[in-house]
Design brief:
heterodimer; A: about 575 residues; mainly alpha; Sodium/glucose cotransporter; 2 domains; two-stranded parallel ribbon; 21 helices; 2 strands; about 70% helix; about 0% strand; globular; B: about 70 residues; about 75% helix; rod-shaped
Chain lengths: ~575, ~70
């Protein structure tokens, strides 16, 4: 499959519009509040689409299709058990504190509610995480474009060897994101995320349509694949009867509660989008509006994995050693499948020129929206929670605006560097993902206790966070997924028990970290002095006036939207039971 | 504030026009891989229709705002 002028032209149109939006917003970005918070003036539906799009990075798009091929339709638990209930909880219960406290970031909320040390802990770990994850996402996408070989011929015609495709992909996409974030700040990132959202749908919907037609529809897939792949819950009675190696409790508690609530309710990358909304009700509606399209996303991003397994005896490509055609074999001597190539392989299979241009643009769009999400979250936390808090507290607004722009340049440069480091070390991605799990899982307990139990103290929160992170490390160091060697996969302190899969180990590490953080925070809070209740108004549930929604029409009331979303999600779970 | 519906509509309008145009006038022998469906024509028309919807929504929102003033 080779690209023609039409594909290039379509990609060019996309680049033109993305940069154009940045240029159009440049004149409006003259204060730090406009740059970091989009002036808190964005309508709810725009924030809602940006909310999903910022999370739809390259890793999500590539990873969900890969997991679809590996674990089947149960992958949609990430959406139907994980994301959706967490988004409803964020909108109905947590947004009033984030938006109402006038905090400018999630770490800043932690300072208002607890103290400086808890904020510093969260700000520093979050800033590092964003840079790393945008770097890894960049690495994943550039690698993918290189392995697909679609760009080989056009670059060869220009006298550029295929080994440069990685560099060109990294540098050019980093530059585009840099330019539009630098020009328009958070508004530019958010408006572009809306554009990117529609583009991702436009690229994946026809893929699923053609794929399903080829597979003979959903019934065709059900006929060709083992039942464990086409039922989300049936195999979850025990860890031994499903490809994920997790039971229903592990899924509900580990994924549904700790990991998903931990991500969607406390990660500033997504929460920042809701905090940019133009009013409290708009901020609360943001995650709820986002939940509607999010519910349908498994059909776009997980389904390609099932299609690739089902059509023509399976078309997921075999993993080969780099630069060769020699297959990489697993422990049983069978060739391993390169699951990450699932979605793009289908694109190359079904899309003729023209449509292929849209498909590749959709991949680029997903990658850029994820990266811009990380970069805008990074520059805000760096400027407000590290620079203004500890390095230079009383500078002018213009100075912070300038620092924010510099942080954007620095953040992107650091991501590019991470992409190259990731290219050097085989397992750096595993290491970093581990660190994310260590940091994110305990944080949820801190927020839940902070928002809903007024007795929680700053010392308690900090001690809980540290203990939870250590507990995660300890659990990981003492357990191992079946078939893995001790090291980054776990067991570096000795192996007390083994899990059937990496995913099972992940879920249980998160559950452990959350529980320890919860217990330690409660224990330490009980023996330390609580804050004066008057200081906690607007920060804690029991001391804050409930937002009144009675005057709103029913379709704008967060609680009503939440119930509708949960009912629809429940139905989806039943249909694919 | 920028009404994002307009740039999104213009972009999808342009992409839809390119796809539809190629679907009608371009090489017809390339659709074997898309199971015999002229996916450029089909999807190009869908994108054009989507762009038109967004423009209508945006115009309605503008006139409603005008009424309020």
């Amino acid at each position: 499959m080779t690209l023609t002028w039409l594909d290039w032209l379509l990609m060019l149109v996309y680049f033109g519009f993305v940069l154009g939006i940045g240029v159009a917003l440049k004149g409006k970005t003259t204060t730090s509040s406009a740059f970091f918070q989009a002036g808190r003036a964005i309508p709810a539906w725009v924030c809602g689409l940006a909310f999903i799009s910022a999370n739809l990075g390259a890793q999500e798009i590539i990873g969900m299709a890969a997991s679809g091929a590996k674990y089947g339709i149960a992958t949609s638990h990430f959406y139907w058990v994980g994301a959706i209930p967490a988004m409803v909880f964020l909108g109905v219960f947590m947004m009033p504190f984030y938006y109402g406290s006038r905090a400018r970031s999630v770490p800043e909320y932690l300072r208002l509610r607890f103290d400086e040390k808890t904020r510093a802990f969260n700000a520093v770990s979050f800033a590092l995480m964003t840079v790393f994850s945008s770097g890894i996402s960049m690495y994943a996408m550039a690698k993918l474009l290189q392995i697909l070989h679609v760009f080989d011929a056009p670059f060869a015609a220009l006298g550029i060897g295929p080994e440069y495709i990685f560099h060109i992909a990294v540098v050019s996409s980093a530059l585009v994101v840099l330019v539009y974030v630098l020009l328009g700040g958070l508004s530019s990132a958010i408006y572009n995320e809306v554009l990117q959202f529609f583009l991702i749908v436009a690229g994946f919907a026809p893929l699923v349509y053609l794929g399903l037609r080829d597979a003979g529809g959903w019934s065709g897939i059900v006929r060709t694949l083992p039942p464990a792949f086409t039922h989300a819950w049936v195999g979850l009675g025990s860890a031994a009867t499903n490809p994920m190696g997790v039971d229903a409790f592990g899924v509900a508690m580990g994924l549904g509660f700790v990991l998903s609530f931990g991500y969607w309710c406390t990660d500033f990358l997504v929460v920042q989008r809701a905090m940019a909304a133009d009013s409290m009700t708009a901020a609360r509606r943001t995650p709820l509006i986002a939940a509607f399209p999010k519910m349908a996303f498994p059909f776009l991003v997980v389904m390609p994995g099932l299609i690739a397994l089902s059509v023509h005896g399976g078309v997921v490509p075999i993993k080969v050693y780099e630069g060769t055609t020699t297959a990489i074999l697993d422990a049983l001597g069978k060739p391993q499948l390169d699951y990450d190539l699932t979605a793009p392989t289908l694109m190359l299979r079904y899309f003729p020129t023209g449509m292929l241009g849209i498909g590749l643009t959709a991949l680029l769009a997903s990658f850029m929206s994820g990266m811009a999400g990380n970069v805008t979250a990074f520059n805000t936390v760096w400027t407000y929670d590290i620079y203004q808090a500890y390095l230079r507290p009383k500078a002018t607004d213009a100075h912070y605006l300038w620092i924010g722009r510099m942080a954007t340049v620095f953040g992107i440069a650091a991501s590019v560097l991470t992409a190259y480091v990731a290219a050097q070390f085989n397992n750096i991605m595993d290491v970093l993902q581990l660190v994310f799990a260590f940091v994110n899982a305990p944080l949820l307990a801190t927020f839940l206790l902070g928002m809903f139990w007024k007795r929680t103290t700053g010392h308690g929160a900090f001690a809980g966070l540290v203990a939870g992170t250590c507990a995660a490390a300890l659990h990981h160091g003492l357990t191992l997924p079946a078939g893995a060697v001790a090291g980054v996969k776990g067991g570096w302190l000795g192996t007390l028990s083994t899990y059937p899969s990496e995913m099972a180990q992940n879920f249980w590490t998160a559950i452990d970290a959350w529980t320890i953080c919860f217990l330690v925070t409660v224990a330490v809070s009980l023996v330390t002095r609580p804050r004066d209740e008057r200081e906690l108004s607007g920060l804690v549930y029991s001391l804050t006036e409930r937002p009144r929604d009675a005057q709103l029409p029913w379709h704008r009331r967060p609680a009503v939207l939440g119930v509708v979303v949960l009912a629809a999600t429940f139905l989806l779970n039943l249909v694919f039971f | 504030m920028l009404d994002i519906r307009v740039p999104v509509a213009v972009m999808f309008g342009a992409m839809g026009a390119l796809l539809t145009g190629y679907g009608v006038f371009g090489d017809q022998s390339i659709y074997g891989r898309s199971l015999g469906i002229n996916i450029n024509l089909v999807w190009g028309s869908v994108l054009l229709a989507f762009a038109a919807c967004l423009l209508i929504l945006s115009a309605r929102a503008r006139s409603r705002r005008g009424d309020q003033r």
